[in-house]
Amino acid sequence: MAQNEEKNQNGSAGSNGHAVSGNGTGTAVTGAGTSHDGRTAEGESAQTLTTRQGHPLTNNQNTRTVGNRGPATLENYQFIEKISHFDRERIPERVVHARGAGAHGVFEAYGKVGDEPIAKYTRAKLFQEKGKQTPVFVRFSTVGHGGHSPETLRDPRGFAVKFYTEDGNWDLVGNNLKVFFIRDAMKFPDLIHSQKPDPVTNRQSGERIFDFICNTPEAMHMVSFLFSPWGIPANYRQMQGSGVNTYKWVNAQGDAVLVKYHWEPLQGIKNLTAPEAEAIQAKNFNHATQDLFEHIAKGEFPEWELRVQIMSDDEHPELDFDPLDDTKIWPEDQFPHLPVGKMTLNRNPENYFAEVEQSAFGTGVLVDGLDFSDDKMLQGRTFSYSDTQRYRVGTNYLQLPINAPKKHVATNQRDGQMAYHVDSAPDQNLHINYEPSSLNGLKEAPRSAPDHMPEYKGRLMRQTIDRQNNFKQAGERYRLHEGWERDDLINNMVGALADADRRVSDKMVELCTNCDPDWGKRLAEGLHKARGGKKAEGSGQSNEARSSEAVAEAEATAHDAKPY
């Protein structure tokens, strides 16, 4: 021990294997236990301060606020990443999206948005050059059910894409459907609780789901999709994807536009009715995972075109809905889908747990040229998603290969559960884990383009948006469904509501009628006949009745066995 201490004083190898020169906090320490990556983005040096996502930090002194005195805004991703890690410096299955499959691939940019140069709208580097390729990892999932649940269940499907860009990671986290149940993140735990099993019986029920929905009219647009065949995609390859939330693009001048993201499968779109899904489930409850894996293994690589809708960044009083409302679709005739690139999935994971189960996404993971809108669901998800990953995978989840950016990372974040290297720079003084410092610590990145600085003036409040218009687009979707899709929608709703409390089913009939009179009329007729013991044309047996029948059938049809 005395020999090691003497060597430390002389500046040679220390007992921990580090090379040490000098003494005190002004020394530089490098060696074992550190990990260096020399790749840097334009304007970065080896000692540029970054986030764990590899995003260069140009301002490490101030949170993002309304005016320089505040209040702070929730989408302070840089601050939230920093403080949440700090909160966990001293030393489970996903709550949602537990069941999933994934694959690696590449995104190839077109260099344009529609027919215009993309630089007009965004300075994000991955989009700028025609043919520019960015590695990606995609995780598909169901939402409300557990990790080993059948892939035929009625549920939205998650569609999360991690872009490993030269400026750090960008996560585009969305679903297969373009709308959501709610417009404010305050309601997200309530929504998920209603879809999860009863805390007493541990059984899911249509009554619980529709009890929440009938008191949340904004959810009707989602109901028009989810309880139709669109609620059961045939597989992951043949489903659309959407960012759902409204984001912003920011150009080199700091000017911004609102943007929505959409993935269009080049394999076409296929959905299943409930009876079709049940038949598949009886044979294979992993069919979607198997389908994706086997097509990639055979070299039949699935492809999606990324398309965006663009809108000026203002309130748009001419619209009958708020463009930041996640329960609404931007009409394509007014805001066309403009192609910006194509994604190809061409490599299966080598280990499911390491790459798919431990992959972690967050809506706040943006690169320069991409920004947040004031979408209240996006603002809430930005904290929740990354915070969930720190709880689920661990404080240092961004050091895992599947989550780590493929570029230079240098942070002052230290320790925490499962830290297996230090995010340090070559020749950095490892005694210095703070900034600013005059002792060879990390430094802020240079600012290459102006920040987008939207102006805000208003009272802080807790209120619902003005233009709710909960029924118009839901009714339009009902009328756009083909006849067999409407039949399936009614059938599935009758099955879920036939045994529900009348207060719930009556409210649902009223809400459906508000969307379209035919929808309400058919639902009411279907419920009346189902409760009368008769099977209505185009309506199904109640879920409760089917469940009870299955319980009795299991005992009645089972084969006796002798004890051993």
From TrEMBL:
Protein name, per record: Catalase
Any Gene Ontology CC annotation: cytoplasm
Role noted for this protein: Decomposes hydrogen peroxide into water and oxygen; serves to protect cells from the toxic effects of hydrogen peroxide.
Keyword vocabulary terms for this entry: Heme, Hydrogen peroxide, Iron, Metal-binding, Oxidoreductase, Peroxidase
Single Gene Ontology BP annotation: hydrogen peroxide catabolic process
Residue span(s) of domain Catalase core: 50-443
Enzyme active site: H97, N175
Pfam families: Catalase, Catalase-rel
SUPFAM superfamilies in the cross-refs: Heme-dependent catalase-like (SSF56634)
Keyword presence, Iron: yes
Ranges annotated as biased composition (Low complexity): 19-35, 542-555
Family named by the database record: Belongs to the catalase family.
Domain of life (superkingdom): Bacteria
UniProt cofactor(s): heme
Presence of the UniProt keyword Magnesium in the record: no
Gene Ontology MF annotations: catalase activity; heme binding; metal ion binding
Biased composition range(s): Polar residues: 45-66
Catalysed conversion reaction: 2 H2O2 = O2 + 2 H2O
Region (Disordered): 1-71, 526-564
Stored Gene3D superfamilies: Catalase core domain (2.40.180.10)
Sites where the protein binds heme: Y385
EC assignment: 1.11.1.6
